[in-house]
Amino acid sequence: LKEHGSVARGFIGVQIQPVTAEVADAIGLKDAKGALIAEAQANGPAAKAGLKRGDTILAVNGEKIADARELSKKIATFAPGAKTSLTIWRDGKEREVSFEVGRQPAA
């Protein structure tokens, strides 16, 4: 707060949709958990890390996330510039993606 005059929250730059049972079944996920990327903002932190539409974020730094809301809360706890890893589901496989948290744009 002192440094920037506001609280800097972590940001990944994605539009998220819930992983329903139907979605989980369609992408081959065992459980309806995680956060499905509907869109990765061009030049945003997620796009720079190689994340794309259709990827499902399952965990942040090894901590599983239940849904999009939990993902947002976890990412918001990181300072912009922090290095983290995301576990994603893509093409029927889990993958680890290194990621640099961005700064939440001003409202």
Helix-strand layout with pairing:
Layout: E1 10-11, E2 14-18, H1 21-27, E3 35-40, H2 45-48, E4 56-60, E5 63-64, H3 68-76, E6 83-90, E7 93-100, E8 102-103
Antiparallel strand pairs: 1-8, 2-3, 3-4, 4-5, 4-6, 6-7
Describe the structure.
By secondary structure, the chain is an alpha+beta fold. It has a single domain (10-101), classed as Pdz3 Domain (Roll). The protein has 3 helices and 8 strands; from the N terminus they run E-E-H-E-H-E-E-H-E-E-E. It has helices at 21-27, 45-48, 68-76, and strands spanning 10-11, 14-18, 35-40, 56-60, 63-64, 83-90, 93-100, 102-103. The radius of gyration is 14 Å and the shape is globular. The mean pLDDT is 90.
Give me a quick take on this structure.
The protein has 107 residues and is α+β, with helices and mostly antiparallel strands. It contains three helices and eight strands. Strands 2, 3, 4, 5, 6 and 7 form a six-stranded antiparallel sheet that branches.
E-strand count: 8
SS-derived structural category: alpha+beta
CATH superfamily: PDZ domain
Give me the strand/helix succession: EEHEHEEHEEE
Q: Let me know the average pLDDT.
A: 90
Class in CATH?
A: Mainly Beta
The end-to-end span amounts to 16 Å
Shape: globular
The CATH architecture comes to Roll
Gyration radius, rounded? 14 Å
**And the CATH topology?**
Pdz3 Domain
Helix content: 10-25%
Features:
single chain, 107 residues, alpha+beta, Pdz3 Domain, two-stranded antiparallel sheet
